[in-house]
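Why run this: before we spend reagent on co-expression, it is cheaper to look at a predicted model of the complex and decide which construct boundaries make sense. The entries below are exactly what would go into the expression plan.
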Amino acid sequence: MGIVVVGTVAFDTVETPFGRGENVLGGSATYFSTSASFFTDVSLVAVVGEDFPEEHVRFLRSRDIDVSGLACIPGKTFHWTGRYGYDLNEAQTLDTQLNVLTQFRPDLPEAYREADYLFLANIDPDLQLEVLDQVRHPRLVACDTMNFWISSKPEALKKVLQRVDMVVINEGEARQFTGEANLVKAARQIVSLGCKRLVVKRGEYGVLMFTASSIFAAPAYPLEEVFDPTGAGDTFAGGMMGYLANTGNLSDEGIRQSIVFGSVMASFNVEDFSLNRLKSLDYREIEERYRTFRSMTHFEGLDG
Amino acid sequence: MGIVVVGTVAFDTVETPFGRGENVLGGSATYFSTSASFFTDVSLVAVVGEDFPEEHVRFLRSRDIDVSGLACIPGKTFHWTGRYGYDLNEAQTLDTQLNVLTQFRPDLPEAYREADYLFLANIDPDLQLEVLDQVRHPRLVACDTMNFWISSKPEALKKVLQRVDMVVINEGEARQFTGEANLVKAARQIVSLGCKRLVVKRGEYGVLMFTASSIFAAPAYPLEEVFDPTGAGDTFAGGMMGYLANTGNLSDEGIRQSIVFGSVMASFNVEDFSLNRLKSLDYREIEERYRTFRSMTHFEGLDG
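The model came back. C-alpha cells follow.
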C-alpha cells in the first residue's frame, strides 16, 4: 500500500494580480494526490457534495489516484474564496463555505489502514487523531495544519504532533504555535514535542527542515512568473511524500532529496491557476528541474 | 596587491530589541576590511574627523589592515543612528550626520592603484566612478549601493554597474532600481546592464547570485540569537572578497564558495553589537561554520 492522504477536495475561487479562477478544482487532498501521483500510488480520503462534477473525479482517476475513499454526500462541496496581492506569499481568505466538510468523519477503507505513508492534510486535529487510530503500522506519517487550529485547538494539535514523524507547516504558523519570534527557537520547541522532523515552508524563500541535530535549507525555485500560489504547500508535500514512497529511502539524504522534489513540484504548480500546470506536466520536466535545484545549491563537487 | 576597499568609517548609534550601542565603531569599510582580514591583506580608503579615537585605528592595524588610505581631516566623523525592530531585516535610520564625509574625494595611494580586488562600498556613485578611473587592472571589482543613490543618481549608478564585475545589493534595492516586483526579472535586468554577477542579499533568507546563465542560492545561517544586523552586508562582502583574493579562484565554483564564506562571516557578525563578535572570532570557527553550511545545503554526495 502506497500513500494515503486525508484532506479536502474543494472548489476554489481565487483572485491574483494576474487573473481570476472561479469555482476551480482545489483542496489539499487534490493538490497533494495529484502531485504524489507523479511518483507513486496514492489513495485519497475526502468528502464532496452532490454538486461535485464527474469530470473532476475522472481527472483524479486519470492520474491513477484511488478515489474509493472519496465520499459523496448530500449537500454542497467545500468552497474557499481567496485573494493574493503582489506579495504572493500570503493569501487573504475572503469566504469559507465549509458545507459538507462539517460532516466529514474520515473512515478509512480497510485496505487504506495498511498504508505505509500517511499524510494528514490541514483538517481538524481531532479528525487527524481519529485517522491516526485507524492506520496500523505506517512507515512515515506527516501532517499539516493552519492558524485556525493553532488558536482553536492547540491541545489536540499538540497530540497530533507527538504522534507523527514529520510536521509540514509554514513559517508564520511555527511562530504562532510557539509564541516565539525567532524561527530557530520555534522550530526547536516543536521538534522537542516529539515529531522527528519539522519542515517549515517559507513561500518564495524556500524550505527549512529541522531535526534535533541538523538543519537542511532548500531554496524555492526562482520563477519569473508566479500566477497562483494556491495549493503550493500541498503540492510540495505530495511531491515530497511521493518521492519518499517511491524510493523507500528514509535516510537523511533521501528525505532531503524528497524535499527538493517537493519544491520542484510546488514550483511548477504556481505557474498556472488551479491544477492546470500539473495537468500538462511530464516526468522529464520534473527531473530536469531537480537537476537545476542541484546546480543552484551545491557549491562543492560541481560537475563542471 | 590584495584588496582595496573604498567606503566609510563611522560612529554608529544602534538600538535593537536586545540592547543599544552608542557611538560604537561602524562604517562599511570598517566591517568589510575587518571581515576580509581573516583571509587576506586589505587596504582601506576612507575619511574620519579629528574626533576619531586612536584606539579604533589601533584595532584596524591589529587586524593587519593597511590604513594608509584613511584620511583624518578637520571636523567630525560620519555618524549614523538607527533602530531595528523585531523584524531585524530592515533598519530604520533615525539620524545621519555626514560631517567629514561631505568632503570625501577618494585619492588612492599609488600602491593601491595596482589593487587586484576592489570593493566600492556604498558611497556616492560619482565617487565610485572616480575610484574606478584610478585603479589600473583589477582582477575583480564589486560594488554596493543604497536606496538613496538609486533614487537620486540612477544614471551615475548605471555607469558604475556597467564597469564592475559584481554588484552586491539587497532585495529591495534590486526591485527599486528596476521598478520590477519580481526579483528574477529585476535581476536579469541588472545583469543585462553589463555587470557579470549580481549578488542579492535577502537578510535572514540568504543570498541569490545571478549570472546571465545561472542562479546560485545560499541560505543564511539560521541563528537562535541575532543581536545587531548592522554591517552584515559589508561583512558578507568582506568575507566573500577576502576568500576570493586568498584563493584567486574566480571560477563559478570558487565564487559560490566565496559567497558561502561571506555568509559565514555575516552570520558571526550579527551575534553581537558593532564588531565585537569579529574581534573574538578565530579562523577555526569560520571553517567549522563553512562545513555546517555545506551540510545544511547539499542533498547529494553527503559524507554520511
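Residues 252-269 of chain A form the longest helix (18 residues). Chain A is about 40% helix and 25% strand. Bring this page to Monday's planning discussion.
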